[in-house]
Amino acid sequence: MTATHEPATGVDEIDTDPAALHPITITVNGTTHRLAVEGRRLLVDVLRQDLRLTGTHTGCDQGVCGVCTVRLDGATVRSCITLAVQADGADVRTIEGVAPDTRTLHPVQQAFWEKQGLQCGFCTPGMVLRVQEILEQNPCPTRAQVREGISSNLCRCTGYQFIVDAAVEAAERMAEGS
Question: Start and end of every 2Fe-2S ferredoxin-type domain (predicted)?
Answer without folding.
Answer: 22-98
